[in-house]
Amino acid sequence: MEYTNLQLTKDMFEKVPKEERNINEIVRPSETYWQDVWRRLKKNKLAMGGLFFVIFITLVAIVGPYLSPYNYYSQDFSIANQGPSSAHWFGTDPFGRDIFTRILYGARISLVVGYAASILNLTIGILYGGISGYFGGRVDNIMMRIVDTLYAIPMLLYVILIMVVIGAGLKSIIFALAIAYWLSMARIVRAQVLSLKQQEFVLAAKTLGAPHMRIILRHLIPNSMGPIIVTLTLSVPSAIFTEAFLSFIGLGVSAPMASWGVLASEAMETLYIYPYQMLFPALAISLTILAFNFLGDGLRDALDPKMRK
User: Fold this and answer.
1) pLDDT score at 52
2) Number of neighbouring beta carbons within 10 Å of residue 90
3) How far apart are CA 253 and CA 249, in angstroms?
4) Which of 78, 177, 287, 291 has the fewest CB atoms within 10 Å, i.e. the most exposed one?
5) So where does this one cross the membrane (predicted)?
6) Is residue 89 within 8 Å of 100, Cβ to Cβ?
């Protein structure tokens, strides 16, 4: 009886031919981490739209002013306050300057501020947060209490105070943003370093006698790039908006230089009479900030290991 049952059990299972096994097998191509991030990012249409717009507005800021037949500072009162036309796509301002050209030039200034301030924030935040998280103990406690103290001051007020002391101007704005907006980056880097510094590869580097800064910069920071990239991407629109606000209240770049905040400030005087003079700078600021936010959100999802399928 036992033999019969065993024989029946064997008869119930048939050997699948090799060809059929290959057909039913699920094959996934081998991918690196960054290839997988790019694949998932491409599936997010809003993030890709934001990426393409960021690339587009960056290229426009670089080459646009050279392609325009007008410059951003020449005045012609005979064509002052003209509406949009084939000659002046976005119209002219009260001094007869072409608004389209000034927006192109303003894009250059606003993006330079955004990119430069974010890179400086990245540098300061990585070094400060990496050192704090790596050494820990009393060093970490003192460094983080400094950060907490600075966090108690509203960042915008902090920037305004710095601008009042050192004066208005493009370099002053970049400097003020750089020394005021690195706190979030430092906290994120510190948290990542604290979670990684007990890993085997870090202990192996210490055993081999690697210097502390080499361990931080060559081992810990590269393995923390996901949150760092997301924070860096989201810090650019924050810097652009802060620059626009400072220029709007008169602490930005000096005339005749034009940033989007300066254009919006100048348009306030004739808002009800010539609303188009406010419309186009406001659209430029809004679309650029939205594009960076969409890209940052998409990168956050793409870099999240929990989202990997």
Assistant:
1) 93
2) 23
3) 11
4) 78
5) 46-67, 112-137, 273-299
6) yes
